[in-house]
């Protein structure tokens, strides 16, 4: 949630920046600075979670977010704001890559998609809160954009306190890394979670996807057995995020340009965020029955149709309905890629594999807002929106290929998980019977 608020706050601030503070083309750079920071954080910093632990990296990301939001709020010019947004992006990149790994490692295979859906609901929730807060704060403080970033710094500080107090290291990392004192930490966490733990049985492979653990110092994500899926993840997620961040950040400005009303722009942006919020919940529910790879290409197909219909109206009730459907379908797709990526890698390459996917995907996301900034001065908003359907279609094709090459593996994993769950239920029933 903090990631979503901190990042998308910029999109709602853009229409309220004074003309002498940032030109239209510079506004595109303000968005892309955050995306560039996300790439740096996800590619170069988040993989350290495979070496030093997931919890430490999340705390570091939150601390950086607080400092960067304060810097942005105090920015006297565009250059300083660019630096603040870049640092915010690094923090978001660290947290978004590492938190998903935490959720995945504390989930069973059968409940993994549902758990990821619960966690990822925070990102659109944060962007929705940014939209609602933006409308109210701009009204209360007469367009004082600094208020958005002070709110972001405050809630990030609260998040840092909560994470430091409540979030444990993952059992998968502690057991797989096998650092000194790891088993004592596992025992303490197990007691809190009500789990039975004995060192003799703790280090069994967690799933068929983690039997061969690579050297954490080597880029095993491009090994022969993982290369195709890695490249497909990079391509699919890159084009998906390019469209997602363009729609999420530029919708308020472009709708305001088309309608002449900043309020209409804010409403459209908030509606898309609400659709995204629903998308996480929908993914979590349907993910209990279907593979994430299958959900991805189907949701992306719906997103293309919704975006084209939204472009054809750009106003009125139908546009709002399509905006909701677009936000829902796109974020179902984002959640699908988020859920499918970590299980494709061994435990000690998981943060690296997911972090690289998140980071490399920012290439298109960085370029797209800049191009939109230049295009907004000479191209009609509807044509800019229509162009965003192309990367969504490419991402759908990549997701379809991923589904075809991995469905047998993940179907077998789900079957094994179901069998283990049924065996555990049988054992529990027998134990209760014996007690009686």
Automatic annotation (TrEMBL):
Could you name the domain of life of the organism this protein comes from? Bacteria
**How does the record say this protein sits in the membrane?**
Multi-pass membrane protein
Keyword Endoplasmic reticulum tagged = no
Task: Give the transmembrane ranges.
Answer: 29-49, 56-76, 82-102, 114-141, 147-167, 230-247, 267-288, 295-312, 318-341, 353-377, 383-404
Keywords attached to this entry? Membrane, Transmembrane, Transmembrane helix
Record keyword Transmembrane present = yes
The places in or outside the cell where this protein is found are:
Cell membrane
What are the Major facilitator superfamily (MFS) profile domain coordinates in residue numbering? 1-407
- PANTHER family annotated for this entry? CARBOXYLIC ACID TRANSPORTER PROTEIN HOMOLOG (PTHR23508)
For this entry, the protein name equals: MFS transporter
Q: What is the lineage of its organism?
A: Bacteria, Bacillati, Actinomycetota, Actinomycetes, Mycobacteriales
